[in-house]
Specification:
Order of helices and strands: EHEHHEEHHHE
Shape: elongated
Radius of gyration: 18 Å
Number of strands: 5
Distance between the termini: 12 Å
Strand content: 25-35%
Largest sheet: 5 strands, mixed
Length: 142
């Protein structure tokens, strides 16, 4: 039997509650620190991703530490997979990744200049679009 659990933050307790002896568990979390948004204004893209991973996402690197957390909780890690969801559609990426929402927050918090942030966001919808991040999945047993 395989159960799927989303490990949020410090969810080691969730591992104990969600499984029983002999159960297999699939854990999956993004590693937001790998977020990449292509734009001609590379400096603003970098500022945006730094802001998102340091201020918006509570545990931006939780994906890369899933296997360690599982082992520390007493699980045997069977498989670790890293996949890269790729977004080529701006609207879909904006909905999923919160590009506009996070940029607006970065502007309000003073991390990115308003004119610069608005130009960057507008340019994303005008041409070819690419964004991605790494999704880490760990299959483990107890």
């Amino acid at each position: 039997m395989v159960s799927a659990i989303r490990l949020c933050g410090y969810g080691q307790a969730a591992l104990h509650l969600a499984t029983r002896q002999g159960a297999r568990v699939a854990l999956a979390e993004p590693d937001w620190d790998t977020l990449a948004v292509d734009a001609e204004d590379l400096d603003t893209s970098r500022a945006f991703t730094r802001y998102t991973t340091s201020e918006v996402v509570r545990h931006a690197t939780i994906g890369r530490s899933l296997a360690r957390h599982a082992e520390q909780t007493g699980f045997v890690v069977e498989t670790v997979r890293a996949t890269t969801p790729v977004f080529l559609d701006f609207q879909n990426a904006d909905r999923t990744l919160g590009l506009g929402r996070n940029m607006q927050q970065a502007i309000q918090d003073g991390h990115i200049d308003e004119a610069r942030g608005r130009r960057w966001f507008a340019s994303l919808s005008e041409g070819p679009f690419f964004a991605s991040f790494t999704l880490v999945t760990v299959i483990c047993s107890h």
